Amino acid sequence: MKEPLLSELSSPGRSGYGLPELDVPRESLDAFIPPSCQRQDLPLPELSEMDVVRHFVRLSHKNASIDTGMVPLGSCTMKYNPKVNEDVSRFLGFSWIHPLQPEKTVQGALRLIYDLDKLLCAITGMEAFSLQPAAGAHGELTGMLMTKAYFDQRGEKRTRVLVPDSSHGTNPATANMCGFQVVEVPSCRRGGVDLDALNAALGADVAALMLTNPNTLGLFDEQILRIARSVHECGALLYYDGANLNANLGLVRPGDLGFDIIHLNLHKTFSTPHGGGGPGAGPVGVKRELAPFLPSPIVCRRNSNGKRDEYFLDFARPQTIGRVKAFWGNFLVLVRAYAYIRMHGSVGLQRIAEGAVLNANYVMRALSPYYDLPYDRVCQHEFVLSAKRQKEKGVRALDIAKRLLDYGFHAPTVYFPLIVEEALMIEPTETESKAALDAFIEAMIAIAREAEENPDLVRNAPHTTPVGRLDEVAAARKPNLHW
Amino acid sequence: MRYLPHSPADIREMLKTLGMTSTEELFRDIPQEARPGEPIPLPEPLSEWEVRSHLAQLADRNLSLDKAASFLGGGCYFHIVPSAVGHILSRSEFYTAYTPYQAEVSQGTLQAIYEFQSLLCLLTQMDVANASVYDGATATAEAAIMACEATGRKQVVVFRDVHPHYREVLRTYLGARSVEVLEAPLAGCSAGLEKAKEMVSKETAAVIMQNPGFFGQIYDGERFAFLAHSCGSLLVTVVTDPVSLGCLRPPGSFGSDIVAGEAQGLGNHPCFGGPHVGYLATTRAFLRRIPGRLVGLTCDKDGRRGFVLTLQAREQHIRREKATSNLCTNQALCALAVTAALSILGKTGLQEMAHQCLHKAHYAFSLFINEGGCTPLSRGPFFHEFALNLPVGAEEAVEQFLNEGLLAGYPLGRDYPEFPRAMLFCVTETTSKEKIAHAARILASLKTREGVHA
């Protein structure tokens, strides 16, 4: 059922909200603002509150979401979002505080940021954090800006950044935004970084290697310690893209593997909701020697002689790269992540990683007779299938993804990583039960069968969703971006 | 463990299908020497009941705006949020949804974003708006980068009364690309525009001004457009409170090429500074240079209307190092709050909200000067923020306000050392006449005390 636009639902004179009566004398606007600075007309829609509520509730019915079904997107870690996190983030003491209030009136908030910083240090093996970046890509930008500042300060001219050919698009995009030249390093047959190619690419002009481990194939690079040594030997930094941290929680820490700078995605590993595309948060963690370059300010603690600890914003950071965002960070997202970590503790985090990796291997093993498995190894929290076999019948990864929608599942990631043909990247996460996994497996097997016996059904999917496949070519050729 | 659904029997059964007997076998690729010898030192896990109680205690140590009237603005605004907004945001299908790459199962999110884009175009009077960016500060930086790419130039001129945090973010982003950032004096001071005229040249990609400025002043945008265009650069207008667009001349109407805005003031609470929601709006000419997500209207093969992410070739997942930016996540749920709030307020509601801010702020302005002993930094027109020199130091005033249960305005000296006694006051529709009068009395008492000490 087509849901009208707000503009189509609008009716002149209808009003949704009554403000309290103005309690100071009302005058003509001309008394305050010259007419040339005033707005002439305001063509906004006019609706009642019920119109608006019905509109958005009906729209919500058209969305897939974790609360309706599994969303097995690789490298997205779409795990269940705990409801208590939503409740606590709505406490007025968190949501109705202004960032510029005197510090003594927001000690609870400052303490939460400080404590989260320390918890993340313990979990990742890093030594200092900034919680200012608003998203993973934002954290990457922060990390690469710090890399640049680090070498500028040392007087070393390093212009190149290495990324694996399996890397997420934000890695090269970020390196480019910081003025680096991006060089791709091929992967070896086992799926990890090709060590010989890496050593050939490393040199005194390389600033950093950006890696995620496990990588986007879901494989833990067994050579990671050798990679770290090689990178450090030529004086470069090792950057960790934390998108896949879910597989490591409680088991191994990026800091212990030799990473110098990391970013985390709180909206992946730490259960904060995706919101349909944000808000997230992308904290950046570093080893001690890079801490001076972190964005300013940092929340610090002082203790004055036996009195209560005081938390404050430390702006005295002469080597900071500067700010990457106004104010202090996506605070309400930090609140949710903090609550999540406090509910799990050390053992809980380890169980998360074990559950995530067990679930992924279970599904991979069950699907391996039906789909090509480019890397037949124990995977970590995600794995990649190839729809090469199905392509021979004219059914591609995209078609399989669309047909899954008819079975009530959100599609997995498709056509990524780029190094696998017709890639389907699947990450169930630890919050899915065995029954949910079995239902997903059944659906994937059914679709593999359909690809053999009734390929058109898959090629023309989806059939049961609110709309069918949309004409993206027309959308781009003649963009219609507002009513 | 509540969010981990497997029983020990499940785990055993699943391991068996893998030919394993212990989960340890899953992690053989991790080098033993890198694994911590003992569990990571974290606090003991809390139950849901306990974590709620612990967070409540932390929240109680903050003075929230329901307990203390506030005169703080400075890029983050406390406006009335209609109750229905929170309920809409709490729909599972909105907040636990993924980014709408699979359009067929994301029509709710996509249509809501299309509506957000549409409303922002109407508010700013620009041709196209994107699906949101992290905040107004990063929007400003991205706008500057857009201008540099569009003109091929490597310098921007920014006025000093663009938000201090925004100017810092601008330097962080542009420094990485070796783009020069020149700072012109406060746009409102007599030398401002004159000095800026001397600074711009055919090296300038953008002139960046904020309207109303950080000190609250409303400007004649046409003069800035003329300045920018006369040297072939773009005018970037920064707008920090979307409610101001309920009664002020929109940036598109006076020649802005790009609008970099913060939309938190609609539908979103202050939240200690985040998450907020920035946006970029521009003219048709720069449509293909705008970073971030864009939602477009189209049809499916049966002719049904639908919405889809479009012009994705600009973005990182396709262009990689040649992308217009590295943006991946936007601020979708916060943008939904803006859309829902604007829908409920509507034309009359937003207009009334803007008018109330205007009236109450001017009422406070007069009272603080006539009875509070303050002097204005400028007599120019303003919307809901204004800067006054106080009878005593601004930090002392903050203390005195707190003693009487109020939150004073922002001491401008922290970012503008040339104004050590100035305070930036913001008055919105949430501030009552009584609280304004109370504030005036406090200011007056400070004057008296200062008289005694002098």
Elements of chain A, N to C (H/E): HHHHHEHEHEHEHEHEEEEHEHHEEHHH
Number of strands of chain B: 15
Please summarize the sheet with the most strands of chain A. 7 strands, mixed
Major sheet strand order of chain B: 2-8-7-6-5-3-4
How many strands, what sense, and barrel or not for the largest sheet of chain B?
Answer: 7 strands, mixed
The separation of the N and C termini of chain A measures: 19 Å
Number of strands of chain A: 12
Radius of gyration of chain A: 25 Å
**Helix-strand string of chain B:** HHEHHHEHEHEHEHEEEEEHHEEHEEEH
CA(first)-CA(last) distance of chain B: 66 Å
By helix and strand content of chain B, what is the structural category? Answer: alpha/beta
Are there runs of chain A of 5+ residues with pLDDT below 50, and where? none
The outline of chain A comes out as globular
Alpha-carbon Rg of chain B, integer? 26 Å
Strand content of chain A: 5-15%
What's the number of helices of chain A?
Answer: 16
**Number of helices, counting only DSSP H or I runs of 4 residues or more of chain B:** 13
Characterization of this structure:
The complex is a heterodimer of chains A (about 475) and B (about 450). Chain A is an alpha/beta fold and about 475 residues long. Chain A has 16 helices and 12 strands. Chain A has helices spanning about 5-10, 50-60, 85-90, 90-95, 105-125, 135-155, 170-175, 195-200, 225-235, 255, 330-365, 390, 395-405, 435-455, 455-460, 470-475; strands at about 130, 160-165, 180-185, 205-210, 235-240, 260-265, 285, 300, 310-315, 385, 415, 425. In chain A, α3 runs antiparallel to α11 (about 330-365), α5 packs parallel to α11 and α11 (about 330-365) packs across α14. Chain A starts with 5 loop residues before the first helix and ends in a 6-residue tail after the last helix. The model of chain A has no long low-confidence stretch (mean pLDDT about 95). In chain B, α5 (about 105-125) packs parallel to α11 (about 330-370), α6 crosses α7 (about 165-175) and α11 (about 330-370) crosses α13. In chain B, about 40% of the residues lie in helices and about 15% in strands. In chain B, strands 2-8-7-6-5-3-4 form a 7-stranded mixed sheet. A 4-stranded antiparallel sheet of chain B has the order 11-12-15-14, with helices on one face. In chain B, strands 1-13 form a two-stranded parallel sheet. With about 450 residues, chain B is an alpha/beta fold. Chain B is globular, with a radius of gyration of 26 Å. Chain B is built from 13 helices and 15 strands. The longest helix of chain B has about 40 residues, at about 330-370. In chain B, β3 (about 155-160), α7 and β4 form a beta-alpha-beta unit. The model of chain B has no long low-confidence stretch (mean pLDDT about 95). At the A-B interface, α2, α3, α4, α5 and α6 of A face α1, α2, α3, α4 and α5 of B.
